UniProtKB/TrEMBL annotation:
<protein>
    <submittedName>
        <fullName>Aspartic proteinase nepenthesin-1-like</fullName>
    </submittedName>
</protein>
<dbReference type="InterPro" id="IPR051708">
    <property type="entry name" value="Plant_Aspart_Prot_A1"/>
</dbReference>
<keyword id="KW-0378">Hydrolase</keyword>
<dbReference type="InterPro" id="IPR021109">
    <property type="entry name" value="Peptidase_aspartic_dom_sf"/>
</dbReference>
<dbReference type="InterPro" id="IPR032799">
    <property type="entry name" value="TAXi_C"/>
</dbReference>
<dbReference type="Pfam" id="PF14541">
    <property type="entry name" value="TAXi_C"/>
</dbReference>
<dbReference type="GO" id="GO:0008233">
    <property type="term" value="F:peptidase activity"/>
</dbReference>
<dbReference type="GO" id="GO:0005576">
    <property type="term" value="C:extracellular region"/>
</dbReference>
<dbReference type="InterPro" id="IPR033121">
    <property type="entry name" value="PEPTIDASE_A1"/>
</dbReference>
<dbReference type="GO" id="GO:0006508">
    <property type="term" value="P:proteolysis"/>
</dbReference>
<feature type="domain" description="Peptidase A1">
    <location>
        <begin position="1"/>
        <end position="267"/>
    </location>
</feature>
<keyword id="KW-0645">Protease</keyword>
Length: 271
């Protein structure tokens, strides 16, 4: 089930042909439901809807709250105009489960993190779930702690900035905006909160089977103006025994699900 909410960094989703109405049926079994005008739930689970599983579908999640997220089916779902940037990785696991991907590693600032590959495999041996209904990526403790340790070391070594001991945003790893603004100024990033602050974040790459997805600075960190915090938008899994590649890390990419061929293709796109 794909679920996208308009909440902080969530965005609304709409079919490209127009606004979704409550309980509007498409292709016999495909139902979109709108809740309180802010939540839309799309039943796109593998093996649950034959009309959907026979078709390709794709979506592109915009970074800015309030922008529409287009959802495409059939031929319109195919990636076009991105040929040199399209990457493809297998969708693994049974056809009646969620969409799982084989992740082989994570790199930060050009270095592969020391993570046991077995930690990327769920208890059911399926891999990492890709889910647009999860606000950000949730990683099992061993994976998250490796990412957190490397991120803290980078900010200390590169910018002499320490993380906050306590956060107000609810995220685990955050920095004071004042410290980040000072670091951004040293590299000509400008002063004060704004997009320039993201220039201090290191490049991060998720390595998949046969593909890799480079996270831009604005898909790793979020600026919480109300709390004066600059936070890593990833966390440790609590209610899920495996890893989830969430919506925040999917921003400004088009993802094409070819369910029949069990493959996922993606390419950068300004949504």
């Amino acid at each position: 089930m794909a679920r996208i909410r308009e909440k902080q960094n969530y965005v609304g989703i709409s079919i490209c042909s127009g606004r979704i109405k409550q309980q509007r049926e498409l292709n016999t079994n495909f139902v979109l439901e709108q809740y309180r005008s802010k939540e839309v739930r799309a039943r796109l689970s593998r093996g649950k809807l034959s009309d959907i599983t026979l078709l390709k579908f794709s979506y592109c999640l915009p970074r800015r709250v309030g922008d529409e997220a287009p959802l495409f089916f059939g031929e319109e779902a195919e990636l076009s105009g991105h040929e040199s940037q399209i990457q493809t990785t297998p969708i693994v696991g049974p056809s009646d489960e969620s969409y799982y991907l084989n992740v082989t590693g994570i790199s930060l600032n050009g270095s592969i993190l020391p993570i046991d590959p077995k930690l990327f495999i769920s208890e059911s041996d399926y891999g990492v779930a890709i889910d647009s209904g999860s606000q950000y990526s949730m990683l099992v403790d061993g994976v998250y702690q490796a990412v957190r340790k490397a991120m803290v070391s980078y900010f200390v070594d590169e910018w002499l900035v320490q993380p906050l001991n306590k956060t107000k945003s609810g995220m685990d790893l955050c920095y004071d905006i004042t410290d980040i603004a000072a670091a951004a100024t040293t590299i000509g990033g400008g002063e004060g909160p704004g997009s320039q602050l993201f220039s201090v974040a290191p490049p991060m790459v998720f390595e998949f089977d046969g593909a890799h997805l480079e996270l831009k600075e604005e898909t790793t960190f979020q600026l919480f103006d109300e709390f004066k915090e600059f936070c890593l938008m990833m966390g440790a899994s609590k209610d899920f025994s495996g890893n989830i590649f969430g919506a925040f890390q999917q921003f400004n990419h088009r993802f094409e699900y070819d369910v029949g061929a069990s493959k996922l293709s993606f390419a950068p796109e300004r949504c």
